[in-house]
Amino acid sequence: MSDCCSAPGLLPFENALARMLEQITPITETIELPIKDALNYVLADKVLSPLNVPPHDNSAMDGYAFSLASLAKSKTLTLVGRSMAGSPYQGDCQPGECIRIMTGAKMPDCCDSVEMQENCQVDGEQITFLKDKQLGSHVRKAGEDIQINQQVLEKGHRISAVDIGVLASLGVATVTVYRKLKVALIATGDELKLPGQALSEGDIYESNSFVLSAMLEKLHVDVIDFGIIKDDLAAITDVFVSADKQADAVISSGGVSVGDADYTKTVLDELGEIGFWKIAMKPGKPFAFGKLANSVFFGLPGNPVSALVTFHQLALVALTKMQNAKPLTRTSLQVKCVSDLRKSPGRMDFQRGILSVNEQGETVVASTGSQGSGILSSLAQANCFIVLASEQGHVSAGETVSVQLFDHYLH
Ligand SMILES: Nc1nc2c(c(=O)[nH]1)N[C@H]1C(S)=C(S)[C@@H](COP(=O)(O)OP(=O)(O)OC[C@H]3O[C@@H](n4cnc5c(N)ncnc54)[C@H](O)[C@@H]3O)O[C@H]1N2
Ligand code: MOO
């Protein structure tokens, strides 16, 4: 399939993303977890507040609580009691009386305002208020933060550290969340060695599974690492079968192109079905999406930048849907490009850029330089993608381009 602007035989990026998402079924299994164990899980149900926060009117200052009507008659009131956080004043008070109160302590029913002690003159039980006050001064009203039955978190929300604090403040002890996904990682290639091993002639160090594993950890899935598999049809078939039995999604890198040792697509065809293969994007043309017997499959290209970009732009989006989480939001801006960019029409480019504010206060983007699919350092230096549409040709410095800011998966 091709559109007006994508090279023949290549699926436009947006179509690939849409087709892939159509085929992703979100998981349904839920578990109940204590809130302290729920960080980064996805909520399977909305959370409504069981109470008002704060639960009662309370003082925002250490000082004196009074009724404003009393102060209209005299600036000096008589102290008749104390309200402490956790030990509220239980009695009543009459016109002309006030109550000693501490920050966070419940407001006595007979008072409507508070003055901080720095603005009061104390003479035994006689408290003189030195400044004019307004009704409700320094009073935090019940429910001013959250009201009872108000929705606090929505279904599909990924629970953050702050959310756990909010849940605790509401007295919520457990939450219902979707279970973690299990994702299998496979690196294919005869040339690959693990860091720490000696390299023979023609070898390189395996890096894809390391970076993918780290990004998957940020996505909060359980990674099943199948390590490095040789470019061998039988070995790749065996590992795909085994991974499919254990995982919800299988991700491989390498061997997805058209070389003599590129078996990924053949095995996927044999064991499952190919949704599509080859996208009009750069880097990342030979990306395969499909289904195995039990799991979905993402075949990433071997080149490190291609593997990362396709994982970030496609697989991560699909896995987020599979987790039942709200779709990822990514921030795009139109900014001036200060570098010349090389680009051939036919594929959508995700070039690596550095966004900054220049001396004139203008937000501009510069290229990281060489954009080869093997130059992983170009991604490490970058803080955004310069996204160039399929039909776009070279860009001259000074032109406006679209940039997508890196999210926390890439930092
Ligand atoms: N005749 C053609 N050749 C190629 C095409 C094409 O359309 N026709 N596409 C090119 C593009 S674009 C890409 S991207 C690569 C993708 O190839 P593969 O997915 O088959 O990847 P490999 O050949 O296995 O490896 C490519 C490159 O990446 C290195 N690599 C592989 N795995 C890892 C890893 N886990 N960690 C670090 N580096 C890895 C590998 O050593 C190669 O250098 O195909 C082009 N060719
Ligand atoms: O897609 Mo390849 O990633 O252009 O090098």
TrEMBL record:
Pfam families: MoCF_biosynth (PF00994), MoeA_C (PF03454), MoeA_N (PF03453). Residues 184-321 form the MoaB/Mog domain. One of its GO terms (biological process) is Mo-molybdopterin cofactor biosynthetic process. One of its GO terms (molecular function) is molybdopterin molybdotransferase activity. The lineage of its organism: Bacteria, Pseudomonadati, Pseudomonadota, Gammaproteobacteria, Alteromonadales. Coiled coil: none annotated. GO terms for cellular component: cytosol. This is Molybdopterin molybdenumtransferase. Belongs to the MoeA family. It catalyses: adenylyl-molybdopterin + molybdate = Mo-molybdopterin + AMP + H(+). Its EC number is 2.10.1.1.
